[in-house]
Automatic annotation (TrEMBL):
Domain CRAL-TRIO: 180-325
UniProt protein name: CRAL-TRIO domain-containing protein
Coiled coil: none
SMART domains cross-referenced by the UniProt entry: CRAL_TRIO_N (SM01100), SEC14 (SM00516)
Source species of the chain: Entomortierella parvispora
A Pfam cross-reference name: CRAL_TRIO_N
InterPro entries assigned: CRAL-TRIO_dom, CRAL-TRIO_dom_sf, CRAL/TRIO_N_dom, CRAL/TRIO_N_dom_sf, PITP/CRAL-TRIO
Bilayer-crossing regions: none
CDD domains reported in the protein's UniProt record: SEC14 (cd00170)
Domain of life: Eukaryota
Length: 429
């Protein structure tokens, strides 16, 4: 396990592009997840533990009968879980985090979706400079946040249902405050944010948070391998101090740093007026250096064409040739009827989970292959894991319409989100 932070060499750290050392660290992280899922015990190499802290503490976590989010559903359970953790100042203690063992696997796989499972772990490893301990700490806290904030809600409920619960949710979409359209020159989906349309009092703060998560979770579907990040355009045209919302900025920064690490490719602050620079002096110290390094300022529309091809850039920007104009299409009656078909949902869920279990078993073999005499060749196991990831993706997107409400990008004239999980953009040049 890495004792010190190490940088990611250019061109490495992604699925299929790991150095031998990175591969071993990825194996270590998978091994820790399995160990927690199996027994709740976190083993720490002796050389990482001071002698005074080498003792083992046992903590009991007792929960009352509660409604819990499981495999895309809710169930009532009463559980008593014993978690064994190592007493080390840098070590993850599930009891302190507030995450129980039985929540781990659903939190993991509900987050993976149709992606390569390694991709999620690698995001947290890169974010913590390949320190497995810190990466585990970070990912478990992210899982806890997803459970506490009920991230599955923004996927399973329609925009109308979310608006009924969170005042002003649908308004964000109707006014076009933020939307995704097209890709930049590196194939990253582009998220446009029209800051002048934001008035903090127009919606409940929680509605804005939920809308932000909605955009994040929807945008994830548009990031197509091998691309792993998105491009954000903060259009500051017409910005005034009445548009400033420091609470929201802090939430957005936290999302990119803690909950969706390594998902930001570039953040463009476009046409910032003079009044913004006083605000920027307050915001800049909040930013993690990694996030700050991805911020770019543009003064003219022409500069945007250095990032986004002119054929992909809407004509509202000078030099853009795509005659796209955002329009919100409301929920269509019956579009989520498949979510009521619980029999098909359960069948598809079990098919997806069966492949998941195979992937986990193969990953355990992959972790141990160099340690076990007579083990199968690592290259053979890796090829089988890759084949299973493709099966996982197919199975997940068969299940998707039974667990995810349709959204704007499913119901448009030229749907962006396809049934097989791919994204198809239509440009009007």
């Amino acid at each position: 396990m890495a004792k010190t932070d190490i940088p990611t060499p250019p061109g490495t750290g992604l699925v299929g592009k790991l150095t031998p050392d990175q591969k071993e660290l990825l194996k270590e992280m998978w091994a820790e997840i399995f160990q927690i899922a199996d027994s709740g015990a976190l083993n720490v190499p002796n050389d990482l533990l001071p002698a005074a802290n080498a003792a083992v503490e046992t903590a009991s976590i007792k929960s009352k009968t509660t409604t819990k989010k499981g495999w895309f559903g809710s169930k009532k359970e009463t559980t008593t879980t014993t978690v064994v953790v190592e007493q080390a100042s840098t070590r993850v203690n599930l009891a302190d985090i507030g995450l129980s063992v039985d929540q781990l696997r659903p939190a993991l796989w509900n987050n993976i979706l149709g992606d390569h499972p390694d991709s999620l772990l690698l995001r947290f490893l890169r974010a913590r400079k390949w320190n497995v301990t810190n990466g585990m700490n970070m990912i478990l806290k992210a899982f806890k946040w997803r459970l506490e904030d009920d991230i599955e809600e923004v996927k399973s409920k329609s925009e109308d249902e979310l608006d009924a619960k969170y005042r002003g949710f649908r308004l964000q979409m109707e006014m076009g405050k933020s939307y995704v359209h097209g890709t930049d020159k590196l194939g990253r989906p582009v998220v446009y944010i029209n800051v002048r349309l934001h008035k903090p009092a127009d919606q409940d703060p929680k509605a804005l948070e939920k809308f932000t998560i909605y955009v994040m979770e929807t945008g994830r579907l548009m990031i197509q391998p091998p691309v792993e990040t998105a491009c954000l355009i903060f259009d500051m045209t017409g910005f005034g101090l009445s548009n400033m919302d420091y609470g929201f900025v802090k939430f957005l920064v936290q999302c990119f740093e803690a909950y969706y690490p390594e998902s930001l490719g570039v953040l463009v602050i476009h046409k910032a007026p003079f009044v913004f620079w006083g605000v920027w002096k307050i915001i800049e110290p909040w930013l993690d250096p990694v996030v700050a390094s991805k911020i770019r300022f543009t003064r003219t529309d022409k500069e945007l064409t250095e990032i986004i091809d002119a054929d992909h850039l809407p004509t509202k920007y000078d030099g853009g040739r795509d005659q796209y104009a955002y329009q919100y299409l409301p929920v269509v009656a019956g579009e989520n009827d498949r979510m009521k078909d619980t029999e098909t949902k359960e069948r598809l869920l079990e098919e997806w989970k069966a492949i998941m279990w195979k992937f986990e078993a193969l990953t355990r073999e992959w972790i141990a292959c160099k340690k076990t005499e007579g083990a199968r060749a690592e290259e053979v196991i890796e090829a089988e894991r890759l084949a299973l990831t493709k099966e996982l993706r197919v199975a997940y997107f068969k299940l998707d319409p039974y667990i995810r409400a349709r959204n704007l990008y499913h119901r448009s004239e030229h749907p962006v989100l396809q049934a097989d999980g791919t994204s198809v953009w239509t440009y009007k040049n």
